[in-house]
Amino acid sequence: MKDRTENEFTVELLCGLLMSILAGFMISALLAVMVMFLPGLARTAEAADIVDRDMLRKNEVTRGSVLLQTESKGLYRMAPLVKTDVHMRVNGMLVRTRVVQRFKNPGQEWQEGIYVFPLPDKAAVDHLRMHIGDRVINGVIKQRQEAKKIYHRAKQAGQKASLIEQERANIFTTSIANIGPGETVSIEIEYQQTLKLDKEHFRLRFPLVVAPRYIPGTVPNVEEQVQGFSGSGWARNTNQVLDASRITPPVISPGHGPLNPVTLRVDLNAGFQIDKIQSSYHRISQEVQSATSMTLTLADKQVVADRDFELVWKPKSGHVPRAALFSERKGQHNYLMLMLMPPDKQQIAQQVLDREIIYVIDTSGSMGGASIRQARRALQYAIRELKPTDYFNVIQFNSKTSRLYQQSVPADQVHMDEALDYVRSLQASGGTEMASALHAALELASDNETGRLRQVVFLTDGSIGNEEALFSIIKDKLGDSRLFTVGIGSAPNSHFMHKAAQFGRGTYTYIGKIQEVDEKMSALFRKIQMPVLSDLKVEWPEHTEVEMWPARLPDLYAGEPIILSARLSAQQGTVRLSGKRSQQRWQTDVTLDTEQQSSGVAVLWAREKIADLMDRLRDGSSVDVIKKGVTDLALEHHLVSRYTSLVAVDETPVRSISEKLVTKAVKVSLPAGWQHNKVFSNLPQTAAGSYRDLILGMLLTLLGCLLSVYFHRKNTHAA
């Protein structure tokens, strides 16, 4: 009887173990299915592939394509392709740009394409049109959540729909649903912006690629990931970057070749005779229309979207505008944009200032290749330009932050030689933990009680996702210091660079290739010797109601104009601008009376006010109050913002609900000069972690089942 009981127990135990194993694998399979079919959680940073089922073999592909690997070995499907046409029309200081994105579905199933793309950080996006054959569907502005609901209802109903959302001031997402097999659908976006004028040079930039960004913070548990993952990027949302999955588009792996081409045309009406014009990073063709206007196109017809486009032109001597006024009447309001050049630096009494300069250089993995060479050369130039009366220090950061000296040291030959040797040895690797570097630089500057002018020069590509946290550090820690940002590489994060310099009461300089280093750094050092104008004030005509942005004018440096936007109850009389130049008062008057109207001035004013409202969030303003203010303003002026989106829907269904719709993200190129292995080996937030979590969960689930059965059977046997 005893042997028989033991045999029965053995059989029962084996059956229990078998059932436990089966249960464990069923639970594990369920978790795996959840991860594989929820967008984004089945990606790795290096491949950045979306798992789907439209399959073909590599030898079946007869043209350049992005192939996404499927769950079946040796089988792939083609990702959606995007061709972008850019047409920019320049009139004086105002630029109107039309961007046409042509989505091509190369597969055999219905697709939804998701494309994350950059625009200038001050772009006022106000129009969306969806072109389907000869038909055009105009987009309407809605609150962001309402626009999403409209889009998703149309997607599920088999209707063509498009949605434009703002992720950052310079990052947008186009979603387009129900693209048929082999079909092309065009999405047209329009925006307004102003030119940058710096030292008699006008600069027009168009960003062409969203660079991979370092995503700091911790990832929530699997349950929270499943609920919160809403993007198509390679990164998962973290406690520091809540929308990481929406700002990290998948990247084309090395070897796939150029894709997603761009054509570009600029119709330039400068308003003055042009001395010289050049494209900084692309070859161009010119067709001269007159002494003040011309048409420019890319010499190569189309280019790879892997570096920013920049056009620079200079007026002929004596034709540099000293002031410009643009106005627009809309509804009951008058809107204007005023540009005024400050006095030349030569007109200001010079004085030698005692300064402490802290150089901060980014040595993270994204700076690998050409970027670190540009940064090293720029920093070496800066060190050589130090004056004997200056003090200085050097801070480098990647995953960690380190100082060359514990405290700033005199700029004598011994210290400068040590610093130059130190800079020459710097290499790019690791993550981009910028917060600790900002803390170190600004705290080091605040330690100085000698009365020196404290300046921080920050060299980086700005490839981070936690901009808001960094802006808060600058505002909290800046004190009496000034922060100057130097953008490095082919596609720096211009939004971070501009805003960091704005909050730091400094300026932003961009270096896109090593040949520009000496010229750009020389210009920067001429600027930072001292502001040309400080304590700027604006006096408007009496009895005129005015809303002006920026509400507080910054210090101005050599070659920089005063640019302000305003909404007035009446446009008449004179506005007076005043300030201090080398402790002397300066002022000038500008008449507001003009009949000339310029389209787009109202949306530029609204864009500036929205930016100011968003800045107030960092000062502790109520989120609900700011959200309502931004939403009301954006709806009134038909603008895309953080809280509003443009949506267009074709009412006629084109896809049967029974036919499958596959969602896929459009891949982007790495910025030119970036090294794929260095970038992705140091980006922490990839989907690989989700697989480790699942495997661990599978093992723990299985172990728990086994132990449960074992102890249950043991207790039963003992009884």
Report on the architecture of this protein.
The protein is 27% helix and 32% strand. Strands 3, 4, 6, 7, 11, 14, 16, 17 and 18 form a 9-stranded mixed β-sheet that branches. Strands 22, 23, 24, 25, 26, 27 and 28 form a 7-stranded mixed β-sheet that branches. The radius of gyration is 29 Å and the shape is globular. The chain starts with a helix and ends with a helix. Helix 1 packs antiparallel against helix 13 and helix 4 (370-384) crosses helix 9 (517-528). By secondary structure, the chain is of the alpha+beta class. The protein contains 13 helices and 35 strands. The longest helix has 36 residues, at 2-37. Among the domains are: 2-44 and 689-718, no CATH class; 334-342 and 533-637, Immunoglobulin-like; 353-528, Rossmann fold (3-Layer(aba) Sandwich).
